[in-house]
Amino acid sequence: MTTGLTLLVLRFAFLAVLWLFVFVIVFALRSDLFGQRVRTIPTDPKAGASAPTTPTAPAAAASAPASAGAFTELIGQSGGAQQQPAPSGVATRLVITEGSREGIEMPLGGGPITIGRSSESNVVIRDDYTSTHHARLDLRAEGWVLSDLESTNGTFVNGQKVTGPVTVAERTPITIGTTTFELRR
Prior knowledge:
Blueprint: H1 2-34, H2 57-62, E1 71-73, E2 93-98, E3 105-107, E4 113-116, E5 123-125, E6 135-140, E7 143-148, E8 155-157, E9 160-161, E10 166-167, E11 174-176, E12 179-184
Parallel strand pairs: 4-5
Antiparallel strand pairs: 1-5, 2-3, 2-12, 4-6, 6-7, 7-10, 8-9, 8-11, 11-12
InterPro entries: Cell_Proc_Reg/RNA_Proc, FHA_dom, SMAD_FHA_dom_sf, YscD_cytoplasmic_dom
Keywords: Membrane, Phosphoprotein, Transmembrane, Transmembrane helix
Pfam family, one: Yop-YscD_cpl
């Protein structure tokens, strides 16, 4: 009798482990496809000013234009901070020159711009060769600086793989996955 009871307990334990494994895989796939959840920092009513916040994915997706499709224009949005305009003499637009959304243009603004497959990115590229958080563009005194965020397939500027922060000149091709774009005035 104990052998039958032991076998029954082992069967249920094995079944529970299999279901746990399935849930872990589904969660990993969901986070890879849709990105991690964004937490907002609550405002402090005593301080009188709001603390910095990050836009949530639904709010960011709601502001995206329907015509962008694979590329989502969310550039320069921050959760309450004022957008600073780009200084004169610097690129103000991002133009897709190759890929599924060739010809789409987006204004750059003056803040950091994240590029990746995640819906939390400022520029969303729906591409199998693009990492969830792939690259970042920062506006500095010397111009726009591109940094690869340890992506799987790499970021390329004018055909060269980015290994550290690189200042990107205007009309220099930047390739992420199967999409190529340029910074223009």
